[in-house]
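At this stage, I needed to go through a protein sequence along with its fold in token form, as given directly below:
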Amino acid sequence: MPRTLTLRAGTAGIASFSLFALAACGGGDEEASAWILTGGGWPAIEEDLERFNEDREAEIDVEALENDAYKQQIRTAVGSGDAPTMIMSWTGGALLEYVEQDRIIPLDGNTGELDDRVYESVWQNGVVDDSVYAVPLNDVQPVVMYYNQEVLDEHDLSLPETWSDVEDIIDALGDVEDVDAFSLAGGSVWPAFMWLAYLTDRHGGEEVFQAVVEGEEGAWDHESIIWALETMQDLGDAGFIRDYNAVDAGQNEDAQLLADGRAAFLLQGSWVYATINQDFPEFADSGNFGFTEFPVLEEGAGDPSNIVGNPANFWSVSADATEQEQEVAFDYISEHLYNDQAVDEMLEAGSLPPLNDIGDRIEGSEAEEFLSFADELVGSANHFQLSWDQAISPSEEQAFGDNVAAILQGNMTPQEFVDSMNSQ
């Protein structure tokens, strides 16, 4: 199957980089290096890199940084030519900038069997101008629709397959006290990004947001984005949980609303499956906790198999690293990445590697039902859209978050939103 042209260099806005150098970076050092994040599944990634060092008698020096600190320091390091040998990114606008600045190198011919093992919908996120510049390194996290079956049964509702079904559910629950259609942590803002991404994609297809990522002039001012913003404000009036702007995802309040039966559905990332099992075990074990895919928009131009979320974090290789350092990175990527032990550990933790050859290994795992569902979702997807806040140019991130918050609060019209974003 030919690779899909996902990104094009030369069109996204270039952010300026500070030129002060950071210590312990890859360029010019004798040993290869990699920066990773703290928390979550990252300690397992660090352990895997250490196993590689022991097995290959190689040396990849690993440094773990907190998420926000990493985002600031990696841009400075890449821009000044002092990046670690292996550069982690979320792809999207940041990856385009690295390619445009010639700060990373193509990986074609140095990825081993990964191009055959990784699902196409995930792989294409690391492709620029038909060349591979980044490969996934950890688990895949699609956004899915969770539901409370007890609420559906109580109100004689079925799972929505189309957007008309969604509207019927909203109407059916409109006069029900203390139960709403959708839980949304509007106070945290970022959960609303998922709604905006899915609605835009279902209405206009992946090309709409791709134009934004590639920096095309006026790309935000598209009918599908405006329709999605209008629909979100309509949901705020009738479909989202009451007082949704007071709900905090950081405290898992949106998941609790679903577990408590105060909402029928919750659109959230795959990581919420583990959250509900850990924090609300009674609901998780009740037989009422379920999950499904985002509904189809009738007459929408988007492929209904398309999904959004976090395809994975990705490794790229610095153009400023020495040839010896680059060879160490190639060896890790082509021979060690997603090795059997690493895959088993991911599955045991309830995480899903984006690989097409692990179906048998999912069977029997503690989260088999959910992992099989997510695996099929990713494997069937025509396109996997990276979360918008990660995919856009870093220079747009603050304005994007502020403007989505204004949309949720009713302080900005959809047209004002797109005008603001086009001016960034």
